[in-house]
Structure formats: C-alpha cells, structure tokens
Specification:
It is a single chain. By secondary structure, this protein is α/β, with parallel strands linked by helices. The chain has three domains: about 80 residues, no CATH class; about 240 residues, Rossmann fold (3-Layer(aba) Sandwich); about 280 residues, P-loop containing nucleotide triphosphate hydrolases (Rossmann fold, 3-Layer(aba) Sandwich), CATH 3.40.50.300. The chain is built from 25 helices and 19 strands. It has a seven-stranded parallel beta sheet with strand order 8-9-7-10-11-6-12, with helices on both faces. Strands 13, 14, 15, 16, 17, 18 and 19 form a seven-stranded parallel beta sheet that branches. Strands 3-4-2-1-5 form a five-stranded mixed beta sheet. Helix 8 links the parallel strand 8 and strand 9. The chain is globular and about 90 Å long.
Length: about 625
C-alpha cells in the first residue's frame, strides 16, 4: 500500500489488498473516493487528515510506504514538530523561572522605549511568554490587563516586520475596549474597521479593498466570522496582510463541532501568529480547551487524539485528577495565567447589606405572592420534573421582581405562563396602579446612599437585573436633579448604532472621564458585566437587586477592581436588601459561590461548578426554598 500526495490530493494505492473492510470504511468516512480503474482511493489534501491517516495505519499495524512527495512532506512535518517541542521546552523553562536574562532584558528595554503604558511585572512576563511562543493563550483572570499584553507583543512583531495587521474576533462588547486600549497602550489612535453589524455586501468591500484602504486594526464578531468565512480567508491570504489573529473571550468557541468554533479553526492556517484570550478557559469541562489549542497549533497536534480520548474518558468516570494531569502534560507551557492574588490589588470592601423594611404595599404584594407560591408548590408532585423546573424558575423570578419593583409583575417571563393573581383582583389592581400609592423603600434608601457619595464627589455604578427597575432608578435620580445614564441590553454598542445616539462606549467613556459631570451609571450586569472597565475613576458600586447568576455577579464586581486603578484605591460594594425576603437567600447563595469560585480560579486549570454558570439557578433556588 502506497500513501502519496498528488497535487491537491492524498492518494492510497492498495496494490496488495492490504486494507480490510474496516480500513476501507475508515477511508470512506474521511471522504475518500475509490477509482475502480486505477485501484486508487483519493481525497482532497489537508495536513491534519494526512497525519491522521499515518497515525491510523501505524496504530492498526498496516503495511504501507510513503511516496516521494509524501515522504518529503512527512520529513518537513517531523522537523516542524521538533521545532515545536523545542519551543515548548523554552517556554516551560521560562514559566519555571529559568530563562535567558539578557533576552528578557532586551524585551523590557523595548517595552520601555516603545510602549506608552507602563506594564506591571505580571504583564511583562505574560507578554514575553507570548512573544517567545508566538502562538499562545492567556488565561489570566479578568482585570489583569490581557489586552495590553497582546498589544505589546503585536507592536514588537510589527516593528520587526513580522505583522502589520491586528485581526480581533470577539463579542461586540469588546470592540470599544480594544480601540481604547490600543491608543492607551501604544500611544496612537488605531486606524480601525469594524467588520460586524453592517450589511454583508458592505463588509465584503472591506475585505477586498486592502491595497488603498487597509487598516491596522480589524474587529469582528463570532457571528460575522461565521458568515464571512470565504471573504476572511481571502483577506488573510493577501500578500499585503500579515495578520496577528486574536480570539478574545475565547470561551465562546469552546463547543466541539460548533459553528463558531469551526469558523475560527478554519482561519488558523491562514496566519502565522495567533493568540487566544479568556479568563474562563474551562467553564464546565477540561475538554473545553481542545478547540482553543487546535486553533493555536493546527499542525502540531498539541493535545493528541489519544490524550483527548483519555481526558474525556477520565472526566466521564469522575477521575478529574487524571484528566487534569494528562492535560497539564500537554498544554502547561502553551498558556500563561495570572491569578487574582498576583495582581496585588487592594482588598475589596464588601459592606454588610443595608437591611430595609418594605413599604406598606410592597410588603402586602410580596407576602401575597410568596404565600400563593408556597400553596401552589404543594401540588408540584403531580407534574413532571421539566414542568416543575419551569414553574420554579418563573416563580422565583416573580419573587425577585417583587423585591426590585412590584410593577414588574405585569411583564411576561419567558417560558412561564402561570397566573399567580387568579382570584386576586384587588392585588392585581394594586400592582397595576402601584406608582400612585408609594415609592419603593429601596429607591428612597438608594437616593440617600447616592447623596452621601455625591457629597464626597465619588462616582458610583448602580446595578439592577431588571430593565424596568433601571428605568425607575433613572427617573427618580433625575427627579432629584442628578445627571445619570443607563446601560442595558437596549443600549446600542458602537457597531449597532446607525444614528446619533448614546452607545455603551460613549456612555462608558463619559462616565470614566473625571471631568464629564456624569458621576452615576445605572447598569444591567447581563449587558455591562463583560468587557467594560470602570475602575480608573469609579470605586463604588451599589447593588439595588441581585440574581442567582454568579458568573455575571463576579464580572460586575471586577468592573471597578482591576489593574490600572485598584492598586491603591479600595473598591466598595453596597447592597440594598429587604428584610424577610428572598434578597437574603440570593446574597447568601452568591457569597458561597463567590468564595468557592475565588478558590478555584487560583488554580492553573480552573473548572467552575456547573451551578455557577447554569441558567437554571432560579429553578434550583425554588427547590431549595419551597421543596
């Protein structure tokens, strides 16, 4: 049997009927076609498939020879793998503290001369690691300055003539921070293009118009990358483009065989320099990193198929220590991770909750809703588990709405149609006309807290999980004469704004400007907890209400506690809580998860428990409180 590479094809000549039926089926599974006249199997060439075939033949102990071109190619691959292993050893030594001190000193001198921003020592080490590795991952915690690290390495490679374009894929919320960080790190405004949120034909022109209208920074979303795969491949292959390809918030591409993941993986071979950034590399499983390292090293097979199988199997049977050990041996040198404790920030000040008594009608509404849910819960055993989960989720959301703003009870809850107000006409009328009777006690207390901070001329971000509550807070603060703005899901990001209006980026920039006069930001964690930094001028946060979503909560905490502002200034967190309500359970539950998560994220391979990220945390709370 002869394995050969012919033009664009891999061919297998089965001259001596070496292949059995299983082997033939395997070739057909890989897409081979069989020519009866020549007795040759053919498939389009890819390096990954070529290496898979060799491994398969070797594992099955099938006798085969390599043709001349296949032999040369195999030798080239062997040489490439030797270089890769040598590079792994160099960065392994660096991470253990053994490295070329003169080379590192030269790198630090470059940073001092060419980088406007003064990098912290952990950022310098992370940047040097990425520079010597060329294709690397940064798994540092949120707020550690990962963007500045990448921009520093990009600038060094650009000056060396190795790259001239920074191509970033990430959620649209990261576009603004990349533009801001580019200028603050490198000292010049980027000539940028956003390849998302516009008509596809207009985007197509941007991919092809690179000779007279090339930019230095390109920003696109995962969705647009998936839609524009052919155009981006053409763009990256242009001779005038030497791209440094960055995948930001890379946990979005963790799903094996997912559309977004495959779209990113297909671009890997088009560029020579690649980087992935995420503070949560393994949200639920060690297998979440497979796609990340396949993108970084598409030819070198950093996590072998055998190791992937073993990792998956060991996780499945609950032997996570074995899975962790196998993964560590494969990828430990290939990523850099800065832990929260490495940042040397001032400790966060979590103030004891301000316990507030509900106003008269709030209490009446809350008690009626609570008692109705408690009564309904007795009949749950008649329903199937999925239906009970839906009921539980909806009922807990109703309680959360009540402690935020009773009028929210008039809004629909997704996948929940239960009528809690049946035969309660008076209560229904009270909710409909609530604003006529009173102002929520939390609003009154919030205004007092804001006045205290404003007297000290301190900026503050106010968090709420409900849009109706955000609007209520804004209305009452404006009635008090305060200048404030809000960010929530309906606030456009720059890529979506087609008319003159405030975008999230504009509001954020105005808020962090110490002289703007905008000292109060009202925000929704779901829309503002990721990719937006407030820490340079804001060190106070008030939680008007909370949800059970620990991931969003932790991200919101980090908005005012980050590198570049929190080294010497304390971050203060205030909580408004109603007595004898679900508020206390939410806060207690979040504190438990927060402590557990902070312990876990100090590890090199942090895997967060499922309940910290699952959307069914409301249903879990219902079981805990009512079952």
């Amino acid at each position: 049997m002869i394995l050969e590479i012919t033009e664009e094809y891999i061919t297998v000549s089965d001259c001596n009927n070496t292949l059995n039926d299983v082997g033939k089926s395997q070739l057909f599974f890989w897409g081979f076609e069989y020519d009866f006249r020549t007795d040759i199997y053919m498939v389009r060439f890819t390096q990954q498939l070529f290496l898979k075939i060799i491994r398969y033949f070797d594992n099955e102990q099938l006798k085969y020879e390599l043709g001349n071109k296949a032999k040369k190619y195999s030798n080239d691959v062997d040489l490439m793998n030797i270089k890769f292993q040598n590079k792994k050893e160099v960065v392994r030594q660096f991470k253990s503290g053994k490295y070329n001190k003169l080379h590192f000193a030269d790198f630090r001198e470059f940073v001092a001369r060419h980088i406007k921003r003064s990098l912290k020592i952990h950022q310098l080490k992370a940047a040097y690691h990425l520079y010597i590795l060329e294709n690397g991952a940064n798994f540092s915690v949120p707020g550690s300055g990962k963007t500045s690290v990448v921009l520093t390495v990009y600038e060094k490679l650009r000056i060396e003539g190795k790259v001239n374009t920074l191509f970033v894929v990430g959620p649209p919320s990261c576009f603004g921070p990349w533009k801001v960080e580019f200028e603050e790190t490198l000292g010049r405004k980027p000539d940028f293009k956003i390849l998302a949120g516009i008509d596809k034909n207009d985007r197509k022109n941007l991919y092809y118009d690179v000779y007279e209208n090339k930019s230095e920074l390109y920003l696109t979303s995962y969705h647009s990358l998936f839609a524009d795969q052919k155009e981006i491949a053409h763009f990256l292959r242009q001779k005038s483009i030497k791209a440094f390809f960055v995948v930001d918030e890379a946990h979005y591409m963790k799903q094996l065989n997912g559309n977004w993941a495959n779209a990113v993986l297909r671009q890997a071979l088009k560029v020579n320099y690649r980087c992935i950034l995420t503070g949560t590399p393994m949200p639920k499983s060690y297998t979440d990193v497979f796609n990340l390292f396949d993108f970084l090293w598409p030819n070198e097979n950093p996590i072998t198929q055998e190791d992937k199988t073993l990792i998956t199997y060991n996780e499945k049977i609950g032997n996570k220590n074995n899975a962790k050990l196998i993964l560590n041996n494969s990828i430990s040198p290939l990523f850099y991770r800065v832990r929260k404790s490495d940042l040397k920030l001032t400790p966060q000040n979590y103030c004891a909750p301000d316990m507030i008594n509900m106003s008269k009608y709030e209490r009446k509404i809350y008690d009626a809703i609570y008692n109705k849910i408690k009564d309904y819960s007795k009949k749950d055993y008649f329903q199937n588990i999925d239906f009970v989960n839906k009921l539980g989720r909806g009922r807990i959301i109703r309680l959360r709405q009540t402690v935020s703003y009773p009028k929210l009870l008039n809004t629909a809850v997704d996948d929940y149609i239960e009528n809690l107000f049946e035969d309660m006409t008076d209560l229904k009328n009270l909710i409909n006309n609530y604003d006529k009777y009173e102002i929520p006690a939390k609003i009154k207390y919030l205004i007092k807290r804001v006045k205290q901070l404003q007297k000290k001329k301190l900026k503050v971000v106010i968090w709420s999980n409900f849009i109706g509550s955000l609007k209520l807070i804004e209305k009452h603060l404006k009635n008090e004469g305060y200048y404030c703005k809000k960010i929530y899901g309906g606030t456009p990001i720059a890529v979506m704004a087609y008319k003159e209006e405030d975008t999230r980026e504009k509001i954020r920039d105005e808020f962090v400007d110490p002289h703007s006069g905008l000292d109060i930001l009202i925000a929704n964690p779901a829309a503002c907890a990721e990719s937006i930094s407030l820490h340079k001028t804001c060190h106070n946060a008030i939680y008007y209400d909370l949800s059970y979503n620990c991931a969003q909560y932790l991200q919101s905490l980090d908005r005012i506690h980050r590198v570049g502002g929190s080294e010497n200034v304390e971050a203060n967190y205030y909580y408004l809580q109603y007595t004898d309500t679900i508020d206390s359970d939410i806060k207690y539950n979040l504190d438990l998860k927060k402590r557990k998560m902070y312990e876990i994220i100090e590890e090199d391979f942090p895997i967060y428990s499922l309940d910290m990220f699952e959307s069914d945390s409301d249903a879990e709370a219902y079981k805990r409180l009512f079952k």
